[in-house]
Amino acid sequence: xxxxxxxxxxxxxxxxxxxxxxxxxxxxxxxxxxxxxxxxxxxxxxxxxxxxxxxxxxxxxxxxxxxxxxxxxxxxxxxxxxxxxxxxxxxxxxxxxxxxxxxxxxxxxxxxxxxxxxxxxxxxxxxxxxxxxxxxxxxxxxxxxxxxxxxxxxxxxxxxxxxxxxxxxxxxxxxxxxxxxxxxxxxxxxxxxxxxxxxxxxxxxxxxxxxxxxxxxxxxxxxxxxxxxxxxxxxxxxxxxxxxxxxxxxxxxxxxxxxxxxxxxxxxxxxxxxxxxxxxxxxxxxxxxxxxxxxxxxxxxxxxxxxxxxxxxxxxxxxxxxxxxxxxxxxxxxxxxxxxxxxxxxxxxxxxxxxxxxxxxxxxxxxxxxxxxxxxxxxxxxxxxxxxxxxxxxxxxxxxxxxxxxxxxxxxxxxxxxxxxxxxxxxxxxxxxxxxxxxxxxxxxxxxxxxxxxxxxxxxxxxxxxxxxxxxxxxxxxxxxxxxxxxxxxxxxxxxxxxxxxxxxxxxxxxxxxxxxxxxxxxxxxxxxxxxxxxxxx
Length: 538
Hints:
By secondary structure, the protein is mainly α. It has 24 helices and no strands. Helix 3 packs antiparallel against helix 11, helix 3 crosses helix 15 and helix 6 packs across helix 19. The longest helix is centred in the middle third of the chain and has 51 residues.
C-alpha cells in the first residue's frame, strides 16, 4: 500500500513536469537552436535565478551531501565554500561571457573558443572533450534519481528500472522543451525543495532527538571527529585525506571552474541582459543555506541508521524519511529529490547536444542547416551513453562530480586567460590543455587524488598553465588579423555594452504578452525582421 501511494504521487508529478515543459514552449515553435539551447537569449532575472539555482542544487544535495556528512562530516562543507566563492567570480565572468557571446552571436562555450582562436576545429575538439567530462555528471544525476525512485517505492521498483525512468523522463523532456522548459520546471522544483528541506530541518531533530540541543550534544560527545577537518578517518594512512589543504584547493578549483562549466555558461547566455547576471550573483549564495540541512541530517543518521557503507551511505537521509514518514510525504519528498536530478540533467544533456550540433556536426555541410535537429539527436545518444555507464560503471556520487570538475577545470586558461590576453596562442592553449587533461586522468585513475594532500585537479591546472605560457612565449604570436574588439572580451563591469544590447533588442522586437510580466522577450531579430543567423539554423 505504501509503495502504491508514494509511486502514484511520483508518477503524477512526473507527468506534470513534462506537461509544464510543453506549456513553456507552446508559443515558441520557431527560433532554431538559439531558442532551444539558450531560451532565445531572453530569460529574465527570476527565471535565470531559479535555473542556475537548479543547476547547483542537484541530486547530490539530497543524497551525496548527506552521504558525505555521514561518512566524513566537515569536509562536505567544501560545497558551500566553492559555490559561494564561485558566485563572486561569476559576478565578473558571467557578464563578460554574456557580452562576448551576444556581440558575436554565439550559443555556448565551444562557440566562444572557436571564435576566440579563429579555428572551428578547436570548438569541435572542445565539444568532444567537454562531453567526456560531462557524461559522468549526467550519470551522477541518473544514479541519484534511480536511488530516489527505488527508495520511495519501498523497493517495488528496482534500481535498474529507476535508472531507466530517469533517462526516459529527462530525455523526452529536454528534447521537447529546451532551456526555457528547464527554467519553468525549476520554479516547481525550488518550491518543493525549499518546502521539503525546511520541513525535514525541523522534523528529523524533533522526531529522533527531541530537538537540536540533544542532537548537537551527541555529535560533540560521540562523533567529534566528524566536526573538524579532515573529518572521520583522519589524514594518516588509510584516512580520508580530506584535510585543510584539500579543502582549500578543492574550493578554489571548483569556484573557478563553475563559472566556465558549459551548463553555467548556458545559463549566462540565456539571460536577457548582463545586469540580470550580476543580480543573480548577489542572490544565489542565499540558496546555499539549504545545503546545510542534508549535511547535518546525514550526520544525524549516524545515530539512527548506523553501518551504512560505500554507495549505501548516499541513502542516509532517505532512510530517515522512509522509516518515519507516511507514504504520501515520502512521495512528495521523492518528487523534490527527483526534480533536483531532472533539471540539472536536462541542462547537461541540452548543452552536450548544443555543443555537437553547433560545433561538430555543423562542420558537415548537410547538417549545417539542421543544427537543432542534430543537437536533439545527440541529446538522446548522450543520455543513452550515460545510462550505459550507470549500469556498467557505478560509482559514488561525489567522486563522479569531482572527476567532472577536475577535467573541465583544464579549460580555464583557454577561456578566461584567452579572452583577456591576446598573446595566448592556439598552440600554447592546446598544449597546456593536453598536459592538464593527461595529468588529471593519470592521477585520478591511479588513485592519487588527493595528491600530496591537495586536489589533483589543481595540480594538473598548474602544469597546464605553465605549459601554456612556455609554449606561447616560445612560438610566434598568432597571425590573426582581427582587431582586439573582435577577439577579446570587454570589461564585464562596463554596463554600457549590456544597456546598448538591451536597448537595441527592445527597439527591434515585440514582446510576447504572456511572457512580458516575467521579463521575457522574443528571439532577437536582425534589422530586416528575419531571425538572426544562429537562431535560424534548424
